[in-house]
Structure formats: C-alpha cells, structure tokens
Specification:
Number of strands: 0
Structural class: mainly alpha
Radius of gyration: 17 Å
Oligomer: single chain
Shape: globular
Strand content: under 5%
Distance between the termini: 35 Å
Largest sheet: none
C-alpha cells in the first residue's frame, strides 16, 4: 500500500522547512495569502487527518476549512514558526473530535467521547506525554501515527518499512505498558 500524498506531505520530526516560518510571518502580518499557502502545503494532510476520525469526506473538508479560520484567529498570539504542521494538526484533530461529539449527542452513544474527555484532562495528558517520552523513538512514532494521526496499520508499516505484524505487536505492547503506567500514576481505566 503506497503512502498517500497527504501522508508524504507530513514532515518527519525535526524536518520543518524554512517555508513554514514564512507562512507564519504572513499570518502575523494579517496577509490573507497565508491561508492559501497553508491550504496548498498542508490541506491534503489536514483533510486526511479529519477524515480518519470522521470517515466522511464532506465533513472532513468542512473541518479543514475550520482549521484555516482557527489558525487565522490563533496566529497571533501564537507564533508556531518551528511547528506549524503540528499546530495545525492539533486544531484539525480537535475540530474533528468536536464533530464526533456533535454526532454522538445526536445519537446518544458516547464511547469515543468518554475517551476523548479523559484524554483532554490535563493530568492524564501529562501522564501520557511522560509515558510517550519513555518509549523508544520507533515505538513512540508507531503509537502516535496510530492513535494521534489515526493512520491504518498498513500505512504505518509502509512508512517505517516494517511488517504489519511488527506494528501490531508494538501497538499491543505499548497499550499494555500505557495501561500499567497509568495505573501506577493513579489513573482509573
């Protein structure tokens, strides 16, 4: 399975191009071309992230547009020159999760929402961040690709030149370690 253009457009950690700084400077100058440059560079990746959560291309496209508005409103005061894509991806993820919450309220079923509410609690988020810092870089990347970016196992395996089996085993072991870590930290699961 080949990586999609959206997945290829996401830089690896530490590989943020100078162009991102220029895009942020456009936002800071309140130049509307910042929106077009952002859409051109990161639109497919942001849409794919939203679609992985929503499983609805039309709603994912609406979320993508909401990301541009939210970025426009958030820059300034934020100045994500060195982390533009993660900044935008966080907005996209939260926007898509808000849409999931909205759907859930309408359907009265909330298993994803319960998990999301727990993850949004600051204490739990900090514990998860500490846990992620304890993983090897490979295991951390696999875990984040699956549970933050919602990438399928096959795409993760291809991205890191691993077998699907190795990715599944890594995810299984990381989930078990996370469960034990959170119990030790005093979080009820």
């Amino acid at each position: 399975m080949a990586l999609s253009s959206a997945e290829r457009s996401i830089p690896e950690r530490g590989a943020w191009p100078v162009e991102d700084r220029q895009i942020v400077e456009l936002y800071l100058a309140r130049d509307e071309s910042a929106l077009a440059r952002t859409a051109e560079k990161y639109g497919p990746a942001l849409r794919a992230l939203a679609e992985n959560l929503l499983e609805d291309p039309q709603t994912a496209e609406e979320c993508e547009n909401d990301v541009y508005l939210a970025a426009w409103n958030a820059i300034p005061p934020h100045e994500p020159r060195e982390y533009l894509y993660p900044f935008l991806a966080r907005i996209a993820r939260h926007t898509a999760l808000d849409r999931c919450r909205e759907r859930s309220r309408q359907k009265r079923g909330a298993p994803l929402l319960q998990l999301t509410r727990e993850l949004d609690e600051l204490d739990l988020a900090e514990a998860i961040n500490r846990f992620l810092g304890s993983l090897s870089e490979e295991n951390r990347n696999i875990f984040l690709r699956r549970y933050w970016y919602m990438d399928p196992v096959a795409a993760i395996a291809e991205r890191y030149a691993l077998t699907r089996s190795k990715v599944k085993v890594s995810l299984y072991r990381s989930r078990n370690r996370l469960r034990e870590y959170l119990k030790k930290e005093g979080h009820d699961l």
